[in-house]
């Protein structure tokens, strides 16, 4: 197929409530959306980065620049036979995984559409619904937190992840655990702690947490290895895993027992599958992370999460947990009886992009031919 045209959109969609984590506060979902056109079909991909470089070094501005000036020119007009070729075409550009991922995911969507199968079928995913949980942002107040967790549990979410920070850590976890002795409960520090905090993580060993996500600095695989040897709760890496190479290092160093795999963070589906397969061989369990994506990125995540070695509940929640209105249809619902979300069954990512809503939330659109 030939990559005939690429559309690039810059969006922000308001969140229902502010999402606070140790890297800052988000009031709206900012992202870039890419649409790749070939033979009358369109494939969609999302770059879910933020306005600031606090979670990853990429921002909306850097990702727009890299897409416009380097990535899109590398692929526009090119003929490709397999979606894996995109990763190789983009390889001369170092880093910028989130920008690359948008193009890569759009190409995979297109190939699945050409074969008239869902992306899950195209990738060989084995699940038709995905166990999911909710990621609860930092709260100022324990009662507010307990009310929030109660509303999610009442909606049917069976796994809860609490964001933690140097100002909000052991006590909130203890209170939620006291109220819900059997809930799948975990913590995500977004790199906010150091090895001086070992005692705090040892105290968390009492709380039967499923895992602790990214307690230490984003680039500190050695520190995570040191910490894992001193605590029983499995460590999960998020920010530290940006490539197959990082994954090999984490395995060799025993820095984690679990990895939160985000397709955007590792630069697309080809890389995500390589990491998935390596982790399966090495006995590292995965789950699918989220970046509060729009319906486009969330649909991609649902298909990816259907692969065999995604074993813990995903950070994918229903549309109404994020937005009043999303840019795709149908709306994503939670199956409240088993805390799952169905993987779309239509071809490709299996959701329709509502053109009016896409334009309503776009500040900017550019077409490349
Ligand atoms: O650390 O997993 C994270 C959201 C934005 C940036 C980083 C993270 C998160 C989440 C939310 O935890 C997951 C979601 O519901 O999409
Ligand atoms: Mg995380």
**The CATH topology of the largest domain, please?**
TIM Barrel
Mean pLDDT: 97
CATH C-level name of the largest domain: Alpha Beta
Gross geometry: globular
* Rg computed from alpha carbons, rounded to a whole number of angstroms: 20 Å
Ends distance? 15 Å
Q: List the total number of helices.
A: 12
CATH architecture of the largest domain: Alpha-Beta Barrel
* Strand segment tally: 15
Q: Ranges with pLDDT <50 over ≥5 residues?
A: none
The named CATH superfamily of the largest domain? Enolase-like C-terminal domain
Order of helices and strands: EEEHHHHEEHEHEHEHEHEHEHEEEHE
Please summarize the sheet with the most strands.
7 strands, parallel
User: What is the assembly state of the chains in this entry?
Assistant: single chain
Structural class: alpha/beta
Total of domains: 2
- Range of helix content: 25-40%
Ligands bound to this protein structure: 2-succinylbenzoate, magnesium ion
Beta content: 15-25%
Spatial arrangement of strands, main beta sheet: 5-6-7-8-9-10-11
């Amino acid at each position: 197929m030939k990559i005939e045209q690429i559309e690039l959109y810059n969006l922000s969609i308001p969140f229902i409530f502010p999402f606070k984590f140790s890297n800052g506060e988000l009031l709206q979902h900012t992202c870039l959306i890419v649409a790749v056109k070939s033979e009358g079909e369109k494939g969609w991909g999302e770059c879910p980065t933020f306005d600031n470089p606090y979670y990853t070094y990429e921002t909306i501005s850097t990702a727009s620049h890299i897409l416009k000036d380097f990535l899109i020119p590398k692929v526009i007009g090119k003929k490709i036979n397999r979606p894996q070729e995109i990763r190789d075409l983009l390889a001369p550009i170092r880093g910028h995984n989130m920008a690359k991922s948008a193009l890569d995911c759009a190409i995979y969507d297109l190939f699945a559409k050409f074969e008239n199968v869902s992306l899950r079928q195209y990738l060989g995913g084995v699940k038709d619904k995905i166990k999911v949980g909710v990621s609860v942002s930092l709260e100022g107040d324990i009662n507010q937190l307990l009310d929030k967790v109660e509303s999610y549990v009442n909606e049917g979410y069976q796994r809860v992840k609490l964001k933690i920070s140097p100002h909000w850590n052991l006590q909130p976890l203890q209170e939620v655990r006291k109220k819900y002795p059997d809930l799948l409960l975990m913590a995500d520090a977004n790199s906010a702690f150091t090895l001086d905090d070992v005692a705090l993580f040892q105290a968390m060993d009492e709380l039967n947490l499923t895992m602790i996500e990214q307690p230490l600095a984003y680039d500190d695989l050695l520190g995570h290895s040191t910490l894992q040897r001193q605590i029983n709760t499995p460590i999960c890496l998020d920010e530290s895993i940006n490539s197959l190479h990082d994954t090999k290092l984490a395995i060799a160093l025993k820095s984690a027992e679990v990895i939160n795999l985000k397709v955007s963070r590792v630069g697309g589906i080809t890389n995500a599958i390589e990491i998935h397969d390596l982790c399966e061989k090495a006995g590292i369990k995965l789950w699918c992370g989220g970046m509060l994506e729009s319906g486009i990125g969330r649909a991609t995540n649902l298909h990816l999460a259907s692969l065999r070695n995604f074993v813990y509940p995903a950070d994918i929640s229903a549309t109404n947990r994020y937005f009043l209105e999303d840019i795709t249809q149908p709306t994503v619902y939670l199956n409240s009886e088993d805390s799952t979300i169905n993987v779309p069954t239509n071809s490709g990512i299996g959701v329709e992009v509502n053109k009016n809503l896409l334009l309503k939330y776009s500040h900017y659109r550019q077409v490349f031919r």
